[in-house]
Amino acid sequence: MATDRLERAYVSLQGLALGDALGSQFFVPANRPLLMARTLPPAPWSWTDDTEMACAVVAELAAANGRMNQDRLIARFAEHYDFDRGYGPSTNRFLRRVRDGEDWRRLLDELFDGQGSWGNGGAMRVAPLGAYHAGDPPAAADQAMLSATVTHTHPEAVAGAMAVAVAACLVAGGETSPGPLIDAVVRHVPPGRVHDGLLQARRLLTLRDPRTVADELGNGREVSAQDTVPLHHLGGGHPPARLPSRGLGHRPGRGRHRHHLRHRRRHRRRPPATRRPPEGVDGCRGTPAVVGRAGTDERRQAVRHAHNPRRARRVETVPGALK
User: If you ran DSSP here, which 8-state letter would residue 308 be given?
Assistant: First the structure.
């Protein structure tokens, strides 16, 4: 039933928001000792653009029975755009211009010399969509592609979103075994660096040290789909259901994404916002303060072994959504 599907999406959104808000606190320099000590930061935890955009995705799921109307979705993104949530520089400009009435498809064609962004943003917000389509991986992959390409048109960014959506779809359907989960995800991801990273993650399932795994797969520092998604499907040796994936990216784009990181670092030095996630944003429920097993040893270890507070939010958001 549609109601059951929406309930799964809401639960995934709650986990996503919690992981996002937790990770955002490690952009605050004063919280770095807490990261190393595996101690939760003090409240309030501010959530970011990933939760804001995930709310829009869930609202569109509710409005269109699980399908992504791209014109309506980008309009939701633009309507609820909030600079203080920490959007990247290109997304800031893009959404402002869309809100001012410019054609979003034409604007996308201008980004990154027409190549599109291979950032992990499409993957970060898509897990609720996958949970909605539990039991139907092809639908999850197809709708994830539509949801991603309103902001990220590079094939790797799209592949990252498809991988996370299919993983969420499978976990919501009851799959918890790491090997079969990754095998099933790979079947729905097109060839490329994300696909190859997932295959490598499958081979690394026997490893338990997250530092070693991150050295092999990347840890999100590049803010790209290929540098993020494979690690989260593996979860440092734990089932992918416990540690979500994030986008990877290709090397020629490193300069652009380093600029993106510097922007986020400056933004996160501001005091955390005190607002709570929106109640009923276009039909999207607010997110409670505590969801799932965010305090488990596995989750804390994953955050700590991000090695750097600048990466912590990216490490946490997808895993929370897959809980």
Answer: S
Structure tokens at 168: 């969420």
Stated pTM of the model: 0.75
Instruction: Say how many domains are in the chain.
Output: 1
- Long-range CB contacts for residues 141-149, cutoff 8 Å, separation at least 24: 141/165, 141/166, 141/188, 141/189, 143/66, 143/67, 143/68, 146/67, 146/68, 146/70, 146/73, 147/57, 147/60, 147/68, 147/73, 147/122, 148/122, 148/123, 149/70, 149/122
- Cβ neighbours around 148 below 10 Å, total: 30
| 256 touches 224 (CB < 8 A) | no
Spatial CA neighbour of 195 closest among 182, 178, 208, 204: 182
Q: Give me 283's structure tokens.
A: 């039909």
- Residues sharing a CB contact under 8 Å with residue 273, sequence separation 6 or more, in sequence order: 44, 46, 84
Of 187, 306, 174, which Cα lies nearest the Cα of 236? 306
User: What does the pLDDT look like over 115-158, one tens digit per residue?
Assistant: 788 889 999 999 999 999 999 999 999 999 999 999 999 999 99
Range of the domain at 68: 2-322
Contact 249, 118 (CB under 8 A): yes
Report pLDDT digits (tens) over 196-252.
999 999 999 988 888 888 888 887 777 788 888 888 765 433 333 333 333 222 222
Residues 6 or more apart from 187 whose CB is under 8 A from it? 137
Q: CA 132 from chain center: how many Å? A: 16
- Find the CATH number of the domain harbouring 76: 1.10.4080.10
Structure tokens at 103: 């054609």
DSSP H helices, 149-253, are 155-172, 178-186, 193-203, 210-217, 229-234
Answer positive or negative: Cα dihedral of 293, 296, 299, 303. positive
Entry field: residues in the chain = 323
